[in-house]
Amino acid sequence: MTASDQFNISRRSLLALAGVGLATTVFPRRLLAQSGGVLIIAAGQDIPNFDPHTATGYSASFFMRNVYDPLVRISGNPPVPTPGIAESWTVSPDGTEYTFVLNKAAKFHSGNAVTADDVVYSFGRALKLAKGNSWMIRDIVTAEGVTAVDAGTVKFKLAAPFAPFLQVLPWIFVVEKAVVEANLGSDAGETYLMTNTAGSGPFAVARSEVGTLYQLARAPEAWQAGGGNLEGVIWQIVRETATQRLMIQRGEAHIATDLTSEDMDALKDAPGVVSIIEPEYRTFSIKMNTQKGPCADINLRKAISYATNYQAILDAAGYADLMNGPLPKGILGFDANLVAYGTDMAKAKEFMAKSEKPEGGFKLRMFHVSGLEQQRRWALIMLDSLKQLNIELEIVPMNWPDMVAACKSPETFPDLFPVYQTANYGDPDNIAYAAYHSSRNGAWQNAVYKNPEVDALIEAGRKEIDQAKRVAIYGEFQKKVVEDAPDVFGVLERRKLAMRDAVKDYHFTPVASNAIEAWGLSLG
Amino acid sequence: MTTTEHNIADDPGTPRRDRLRRALFRFSQSRLSLLGAAIVAVVIFFTVFGTVLAPYPDQVAGSVDTASRFLAPSAAHPFGTNELGQDVLSLVMAGTTVSVLAGFGVVLIGSAIGTLVGAVAGFSRGWVDEVLMRLTDLTLTIPGLILAMAIAAALGSGFGNMVIAIALSWWPGYARLVRGEVLAAREEVYVTAARALGATPKRILFRHILPNVVSPIIVKMSLDMGFAILTVAGLGFIGIGVRPPTPEWGTLLSISRSYMPDYWWTAMAPGMAMFLAVFGFNLLGDGLRDILDPKARR
Amino acid sequence: MLRFILRRLLLLIPVIVGLTIIMFGIARLLPGDPVALAAGPNATQAEIAALAVEYGLDQPIWVQYANYVSGLARGDLGTSLLTRRPVAADIAAYLPATLELVFAAMFIAVAVGIPLGLVTAVWRNRWPDYLAQVGAIGAISMPRFFLGLLLQLCFAMWLMWLPLGGRLPIVVIPPRFVTGFLTIDSLIAGNWNAFFMSLRHLALPAIAMSLSPLATIMRMMRSSTIEVMQQDYVMTARALGLPSRKIITKYVARNAVSATLTVIGLYFGWLLGGTVLVETVFDWPGLGLYATKAIVSQDMMPVIGVALVIGLLFVFANLVIDLLYGVINPKVRYS
């Protein structure tokens, strides 16, 4: 019976294969062992493209931080600027001139040294394309203002004094001029850099599968000091947070970046898992339409601020802290003594009585981003809270593009509009300017709020370079904004990361901490 | 009923009441159809009374109770509570109304558009027929769910928009069915007779032909009901659907996904409700097809 | 026959034109401002305008359409506003995953559905038959995403027998790209480990997708087999004491093939479009996930591209099926 013999053989080999397969699921740690010195990060966001001057999002930030180098990096808690390509720098007394001395060891993946020319070229390219992170230096750095003093020195002449300049530099990356120039095409090399790199970072792209994973390998030329023992890093796209959590639990990934509070609770007692729950500069608040509709009435805004069930907002958020005003706790100039709105129905009714419709009986509209679970929860809590003032709430989930479009004018802006605001750089100017300066009206961070006094304070704050004076300015700013009650100040959501205990030398930095910087990490 | 003349012509020896009795008998012989009818009766009961009978009607309207989040099933909350401390049973009961009405809306609008297109195409023939049927075929080529998603995203969230979006991808089946029936009916003796007697095309279409295609349409509608409910839930699952606080099964299921496996009960009730409702409608639809559309019977 | 094929292929042109017009119309309906979104939260009005010019979105819709169609002729499906990647390249990367899933689901449906159909025909009107009939309606009624979730909960979360999602464990280097089907490519490469791993990843999503077509095939097989068994010539043959098995086998085999073809024709498009939900549950990097992401970002070029590709595949698959009908049944004429 040859047929049955054949079957037996194939069955036997199948069983052997099954053994291999089983081993990797039942003993997941073997899977990680197989990964060698490769750090596996489970993250929800696909890397849109590789161009450091056009791509955005935390996945892109992760990529840039590891494949490219900026002049200055940021680390520590509270975060401070640390050397990148620049090994040292000096600032002129008036804060308008910065001189950077480049590290002579700095090398691109091509083996060529990083020169001042490359730095000048990169800033020029970022400004010319005006995409990605370039907004951070817009109106502050001009193409003419960046010059190469010699091959190893770059000088910036700022268009205006800008206190947080060193805080934004980590987000402008340096490309190799020769490589980009050789592949310029008709679009300043955008097509080329979309899928190729021209960086000097500690890692280089080893494998990329769109929508699935990106693998970086330690660059042979890696010149940076203080590296760990990683041979590579994998950015694996895992869209569902529950799956990310299970992967950490089973040891199929080393770090998960998008976990919810419920996930963190589930991981609390998991063996071999380290939870990182840290405050980060990520505010959540509900903007009100201060220009049109019922909320233009400051008394109604205050009534709503007092009627809000903050405890429920906190419960629904899980690991978070209530805010007391516009600025996140811990940032420069944050005023811990500011008296915030709390749930107080007596006060809410008092302000309601002063408003135009003290009896309520009208309907407000709240938009939220469809699919953002936290925003949906908070919208329901607002519905519940407003009921006590006899106000109805209509909740409209929207796609993000429609939300953005609604911000264009006070007429299209809803009464309540929830906003997450992540500090892209660790300075109060970031949030103050984007979320409360009237020049941002029409954009989603601050569609309608306008107060000339607040504007003046924000402008003074970004020009001032004396720390103590800045603290005073931002103190005044917080008082003014709280008095105006343009937002229901919500919570500061803590950053929730989980990692396997095999990951060594991790230090939390509260700026874009989900865009993991892998160079200093080790696996042990 | 105008159908009588035609049916009598078809089947001269059988009085109408007798046929009805036979149909009912056949239906009652099929235990599965009866089971389907029973499930559908329960579903319709909850469609009407679900919101009223829900143990926590406030929470159906959006109230939250964040102090009692993620409680496991118990006597007070037979299906547990969700991420906002809402009673899952109440949400699922009230969700029946949303899902069934949405499914019915889709089938109704879809069949109305499809019948109109199919009838006009089948009756006018010529280039009108050609154009309409090409459009029908074209719509059939676009994957229904993706088309519905794109339209729903364009229209924005909300119950009505969702129903319209799905209905706009739902009509081609009816158009084809009705056109086929109309083409066949045109050749029937009584239509030829009516035409010979000088009846206008409009009169022939509405008085003589359409009433006769009613029963295959009804069969298709009842068979489609389950799939319409599934599609509504699918859209909700992807996150394009009704607005909160409206409870909808697909949306409930999609939210509960993040809480697996620890809070599995948040997914069970909406998922099972969805399955049972669709199962009931499909059983009933099968039964109806057997009695109303004997041609399709084997 | 060649003329028939050519004519059918020519008919694809109006399909392409019609599809693109419909999808362009929907894109036009969208109220949001995808350009502002793509330009980023901190873009100035001037930058947004510049981006609109760069992508030709400042032009009137018919000019945009003409540009799109002329791009199509060159195999260019436009560029995603959000990722700035060419849509054609994206679809080429995602399509094989979806096709692999669809084919696997079809395979399961045929492999299980046909024997089940035969068995129930033989056991007609006895309890296994009833059970299978109820089961079939149940299978059609089961929401794919709920079934997927249940399978995931059971086999991936509690029992931990199978992976949660994705196509391959990341430590397995995917085989060299030949067909884009990981199972087939790893076989070609002789990489047994990768083959086995990709099968394990494929199992749950394919099962979740296969239920509906499986039930349909089973029901068709059952009724056509019953029909054959009641044919006069089979009865006569039996009555004459001839070995009826041979006759039945022959007819049953043909019925099996034609049922399979019909169901593939019916379900191919449905499955291609319907993978969205299962891909969402199993994090399967296919066209459905790609389209969903694009739809919620109002990034219309990928959506148009996906609709076009699926539409064409659907038409093409039906052409192939019509040709195959002719092969199994020479009475079918191509006209």
Structural overview:
In chain A, the strands form six sheets. In chain A, strands 1, 10, 11, 12, 13, 14, 15, 18 and 19 form a nine-stranded mixed beta sheet that branches. A four-stranded antiparallel beta sheet of chain A has the order 5-6-8-7, with helices on one face. Chain A is about 35% helix and about 25% strand. Chain A starts with a helix and ends with a strand. Chain A has helices at about 1-25, 30-35, 60-65, 115-130, 165-170, 175-180, 190-195, 240-250, 260-265, 300-305, 310-315, 345-355, 375-385, 400-405, 430-435, 450-465, 465-485, and strands at about 40-45, 70, 70-75, 80-85, 85-90, 95-100, 145-150, 155, 175, 205-210, 215-220, 230-235, 255, 275-290, 320, 360-370, 390-400, 415-420, 485-500, 505, 520-524. In chain B, helix 7 (about 145-155) packs antiparallel against helix 8 (about 160-165), helix 9 packs antiparallel against helix 11 (about 200-240) and helix 11 (about 200-240) packs parallel to helix 12. With about 325 residues, chain C is mainly α. The model of chain C has no long low-confidence stretch (mean pLDDT about 80). The interface between A and C is large, with 57 and 49 residues.
- The helix/strand order of chain C is HHHHHHHHHHHHHH
Number of strands of chain C: 0
Largest sheet of chain C: none
Unreliable stretches of chain A: 1-31
* Large-scale geometry of chain C: globular
Q: Average pLDDT of chain C, to the nearest integer?
A: 82
Fraction in helix of chain C? over 70%
Strand content of chain A: 15-25%
Strand content of chain C: under 5%
State the secondary-structure class of chain C.
mainly alpha
The portion of residues assigned to helices of chain A is 25-40%
The coarse silhouette of chain A is globular
The separation of the N and C termini of chain A measures 54 Å
Average pLDDT number of chain A: 87
Number of strands of chain A: 21
Number of helical segments of chain A?
A: 17
Quick structural summary:
The complex is a heterotrimer of chains A (524), B (298) and C (335). Chain B has 298 residues and is mainly α. Chain B is 74% helix and 0% strand.
Key words describing this protein structure:
heterotrimer; A: 524 residues; alpha+beta; 9-stranded mixed sheet; 4-stranded antiparallel sheet; 17 helices; 34% helix; B: 298 residues; mainly alpha; 0% strand; elongated
